[in-house]
């Protein structure tokens, strides 16, 4: 089981930006390295510059277009793709108090999973974590029905700092524009056999003297057996 803190930053009730705090910190450090303000030697020698996240995505939503722009790092590559808000919500009559807000229950389906959401009309912002949005109020809590994934609001506060509108790696001009389906397929390829992907990208190599082509050293990443998406979201 893992737990991370995420931020959903809403700008002028027209745009929002979602990522994990550790992703944001790691990305900022990478931006400083790209600018030469932190050297590779400094980065490697000091743990204070290294932040790890299991959620290597940055999501920007446009309320006007109804479209999400997703930036994602997979192994050594960076991708960008767009997803229309095609979620089909069923709003029920059940209510509850969650995180201090009066909420109404709703259900939807995304990436091969059924989710239960609780939204509040007390915050009339049609948004929520990850790719979940489109309800008549902010999503305070949303969970996969088997509770393998759960997003719950910790606090809702005003923000006056600088807003990160895209990840620093998007400034390197090395981002690959793709589709949700292609990125999902690549993500699954890396998840199931990362060494084969490295072998394809950089050529054959050895691990402790064993050729990368030897299937005996293939790392199946058995711990990574429950991705948030079991299929690509509709584009």
TrEMBL record:
UniProt xrefs under Pfam families: Porph_ging
Superkingdom: Bacteria
Protein name: GLPGLI family protein
Organism whose genome encodes this protein: Dyadobacter psychrotolerans
